[in-house]
Amino acid sequence: MLPNKTMRIIRNFRRLGDALNPLRPPQISFVARKDNLHTIRGWLPAWAPKLPVQIFSYEDLPPLAELPPGLWIFADVERLTPATHGIAMAAWDHLHSHYGRRVRLLNRPGASLSRRQLLDRLHHIGRNSFAVHTAAGPPPNARFPVFVRLANEHFGALTPLLANPDALQDGIKAVEAKGSSLVSKNHCDAQTEMS
């Protein structure tokens, strides 16, 4: 589901379009990695079937001159490859410079925080009690238990909870073949955290 702030922007943008041109509300364009388009395609019919949404993948984005004005949501920005990051930045820059006020752009590639950056920042300011560490190893004062996951994927934990540094190293070795950008996270018991 889209965050509440994004939904508010979409509703306000549609109202603006209705006021400016009641016959043609602004288009909403959603861009994501080709292998992740199922998330929006599964959500739209059930939750927002009447939204005028065009869905694009970064890999199949039309030429810049054909990109329409409207609301653009750039998704998967933390998962872009160098090639798709370049495509995303070119699209963002073109839309911004070509359409000005007739376009609203969300999640600027390269400026939005990655998952790791966001979790680090939330931990640093005290909003998250857990920390994130690279697979190179947690610092000596790391809290256990932890789990291992891929840094830029949405698969969740690749290991069960690991109780100590030796179990962590064994867990990392067990999943190394699945990706080089592994991170470990402290586990937080949701019941304890919410109490």
Question: Which features characterize this protein?
Answer:
195 residues, 7 strands, elongated, 4-stranded parallel sheet, alpha/beta, 2 domains, Rossmann fold, Dna Ligase, domain 1, 3-stranded antiparallel sheet, disordered C terminus
Descriptive overview:
- With 195 residues, the chain is an alpha/beta fold.
- It folds into 2 domains: 4-106, Rossmann fold (3-Layer(aba) Sandwich), CATH 3.40.50; 115-188, Dna Ligase, domain 1 (2-Layer Sandwich), CATH 3.30.1490.
- The protein has 6 helices and 7 strands.
- Strands 2-1-3-4 form a 4-stranded parallel sheet, sandwiched between helices.
- The longest helix is centred in the middle third of the chain and has 18 residues, at 82-99.
- The chain is elongated and about 55 Å long.
- Residues 189-195 have low confidence and may be disordered.
Summarize the structure.
The chain is an alpha/beta fold and 195 residues long. The chain is 36% helix and 16% strand.
